Amino acid sequence: MNAYNPNQNVMDALDLNIVLLDFDGTIVFYNKQWEIFARENGNPTLNNSDIGSNYLEAVKKGIIDGDEIARDAYNGIMDVIWGKRARFDLEYPCHSPNEKRWFIMHARKCIDQDLVVIYHEDITDRKIAEEKLKSSEEKYRKLAESAHAVLWEYDILEDRWTYVSPQVTEMLGYSPEEWTDIKFWEDHIHPEDQKWAVQYCNESTQRGESHTFEYRFLKKDGNIAWIRDVVSVDMKDNIPFKLRGFMIDITERKRLEDLKKKELLLKEVHHRVKNNLQVISSLLNLQSRNFNDEKVKAAFMDSQNRVKSMSLAHEKLYQSSDLSTIEMSDYVKNLAGYLYQVYKINKDINLIVEADTEYFNVDTAVPFGLILNELITNSLKHAFVNRKGGQLLIKFINNNGKYVLEVIDDGTGFNQDIESHRSLGLKIVHMLADQLNATVSIDTSKGTRTVINF
After folding, report:
1. Cβ atoms of residues 297 and 260 within 8 Å
2. Disulfide-capable partner of 270 in 106, 173, 194, 314 (CB 3.0 to 4.6 Å)?
């Protein structure tokens, strides 16, 4: 039975647990929800909760038991009673064995009356939603901070970065705290990209358009990183107010793209050199047809074959995977096979090629190829004169880090003292051997055996 009886029907219609205390803390009124709440929570007799009970004394018992929430509640209610504050609010948990619950206790002094109204607002649904949101945000944060990207959020109206994920320190060297305003971002864009990148971002933002762009960014250590920035725009009343996005480091991708462009360019250069050398070879062939002298024609053919050896080197280069080296065993076999077809002239010559797999750059491959061309040409042209055939052995090996090229035929041999002064081919061999810091030895005791060591 309520001692103080405001409009009972109105109070009972409210979903709040309402109780009125006098300034001594005695309960003088409560509504239906207050009674229902007490009964549902193990207090069917309304012990310490009925009319005449002292609410503050019940709270004091909680303080004695060490309940900090009870202490805060008591102090807050007393502040309202003593006029130190007009209102007091306290959020507190009130969990049962079967469920979690949260409430807010509100205390207000009644106008022109020595009474305090206290009502308890059930905020369980809100707290559960907040916990779920917090859990979701925590999962998102962990996901964001484990990603190989920098997630960020920027408040346009306040001109501040509200979030920059920790990966920014590893990627760019700056701590998240150093990202203060938009000027920090603008000032660290590479000077060559700054104007267009800032303008593009601003124009896209004003239109409310999500946008993606790639630019160079100055890292804290002075190096440059290529960034792919993916940006979404939040709008309110057709006005952009927030930007969200993520930055990915694409430096390695850009490096590979640049390398690919250089490879394509280098491949095209070698291809054109090879084509130009083929044009020269064709011109030499056409020019040789104007002469009837066989010695002159032979000289033209020798020159064509020298051009062919260089052309073959560039052909192998633009066909290779790294464009910087030539696999020499394949080169030796191809050049030997080509010259064999040119000079064989219906003779039964057994060509044997033994070559290790080695890689030369173009500066080594071209003089090496010219030397090989001269030695094979010399054997095929002169070793088997007045003979129906013979054997030509070409060996190229790596002997403990030293390269050895041997061209051996079982032909007629020649006088080195005479031939070294007359033969352009041998002069070329010695000249190119000097380029390779190679030694040349020739043995004509049994056919001709030429050894190049380098």
Report:
1. no
2. 314
Task: Tell me which amino acid residue 101 is.
Answer: R
Point out which residues pair with 389 in neighbouring strands.
348
Q: Are strands 439-443 and 448-453 parallel, antiparallel or unpaired?
A: antiparallel
As a whole number of angstroms, the distance between CA 316 and CA 327 comes to 8
Find all residues with CB under 8 Å of 36, minimum gap 6, and list them: none
DSSP secondary structure code for residue 110 in this structure: P
- Distance CA(93)–CA(127), nearest Å, equals 10
- pTM equals 0.41
pLDDT at residue number 318: 47
Burial 198-219 (b: 16+ CB within 10 A, else e): eeebeebbeeeeebeeebbbbb
pLDDT digits (tens, 9 = 90+) for 264-276: 655 555 555 555 5
Instruction: Report all structural domains of the chain as residue ranges with CATH numbers, in order of start.
Output: 8-127 (3.30.450.20), 147-249 (3.30.450.20), 254-453 (3.30.565.10)
d(CA 441, CA 397): 16
Question: Cα dihedral angle (422, 424, 426, 432), rounded to 10 degrees?
Answer: 150
Q: How far is CA 181 from the centre of its chain?
A: 26
Please, is 47 exposed, middle or buried when counting C-beta atoms within 10 Å of its C-beta (0-12, 13-18, 19+)? exposed
Query: Which residue in the block uniquely carries the two structure tokens 């504050």?
Result: 85
